[in-house]
Design brief:
alpha+beta, signal, Endonuclease/exonuclease/phosphatase domain-containing protein, Endo/exonu/phosph_ase_sf, Endo/exonuclease/phosphatase
């Protein structure tokens, strides 16, 4: 199982106070489950999915490429998704899904783009000879639904080198309108480097904070340029974490986004999330001990962000576990057009 992590808000405060690295590591097995799909008649459109598919580290679902593909396709069709963001995706997974969806004789067609974060990883060999690893975006429609001329890959800051962290974006037609679709996978690692002089505090290298800030800056630019923006991905941070503030347009944030699952009062906790409120930096867990054996408690680390000016009536839902599909829950979202 792939190892994932997120830093709890209280733990982060303790880290800076004590100059210690405190992390929560997540490894889980979960995925799309059609039985718990919300009542589609009561949810607005457009519809979105974000899902970390754990392509390299997780075992292939039911040991079959076709079984994996069919499970993903069923999740997309069951939700009638207009835009789908997938992370930790092997190149062979992408081509398998792409080829199945771009010209199928029945059902919705999907156009797609892909971006690499690793030139090769051994865990992708089970999907084919090309072992590249990265992110993908799928938009409902025939080829050309995604404008490949607008495709961009922005490399995010990495003070502690590892897998390339990127923001993959492209303009896409969604329910007849052009949006800027962006997908990312934020690092979870914080690294504390001790100084030789014991009197000098250690240096804390914060990959997530720097990466999220750059994602916020780039997507704010798209929004200010007039594009409705849909930003999704695995952020490896809890909603109230200080690192997430550059994204949210409320709750002490400085960003331009609302999040799909921010108004479900079942997940409002703490004095800053009163039941009397309409929204909160919160949401249903996308990783939890039952599906994520090394998660110490449930936590939301996957998101679907929608630019506040363009969207309203947001809704979100984390799918139930399907062991063997991934180490994350699939996240569904929906919204209505504001303008």
């Amino acid at each position: 199982m792939i190892m994932k992590g997120f830093i709890m808000r209280k733990a982060l405060r303790a880290l800076f106070a004590a100059f210690l690295l405190i992390g929560l590591v997540i490894a889980s097995g979960s995925g799309p489950a059609q039985a718990d799909t919300p009542d589609a008649q009561n949810w607005p459109r457009p519809r979105f999915i974000s899902y970390n598919v754990c392509g390299a580290a997780c075992a292939m679902y039911e040991g079959s490429k076709d079984a994996w593909r069919n499970k993903i396709v069923n999740a997309m069709d069951g939700w009638d998704a207009d835009l789908v963001m997938l992370q930790e995706m092997c190149y062979g997974q992408w081509t398998l899904l792409r080829d199945s969806l771009e010209d199928r004789p029945a059902g919705n067609k999907y156009d797609s783009v892909w971006g690499a974060t690793l030139p090769s990883t051994s865990g992708c060999a089970k999907w084919g000879d090309d072992t590249r690893y990265g992110l993908a975006i799928f938009a409902k429609g025939a080829p050309g639904t995604i404008n490949n001329g607008t495709r961009s890959v922005n490399f995010l800051p990495e003070e502690t080198p590892g897998e390339d962290r990127i923001l993959l974006c492209a303009r896409a037609t969604v329910t007849g309108r052009t949006v800027r679709a962006c997908n990312t996978h934020i690092d979870y690692s914080y690294k504390v480097i001790a100084d030789p002089d014991p009197k000098v505090p250690p240096t804390i290298h914060n990959n997530p904070r720097a990466q999220i800030q750059k994602v916020a800056d780039i997507t704010r630019g798209f929004a200010n340029g007039g594009d409705p923006v849909v930003l999704a991905g695995d952020f490896n941070q809890l909603p109230k974490d200080v690192d997430m503030a550059p994204l949210y347009a409320h709750g002490g944030g400085t960003g331009v986004f609302q999040e799909a699952d921010e108004n479900d009062k079942d997940y409002f906790t703490g004095a800053d999330c009163p039941q009397s409120g309409d929204r909160c930096r919160s949401g249903e867990a996308t990783a939890e001990p039952g599906c994520s054996p090394k998660a110490s408690e449930p936590g939301k680390i996957d998101y679907i962000f929608l630019s506040y000016y363009w969207f309203t009536t947001v809704r979100g839902d984390s799918a139930a576990c399907t062991p063997g599909m991934s180490d994350h829950h699939l996240l569904r979202g929906a919204a209505a057009w504001e303008h």
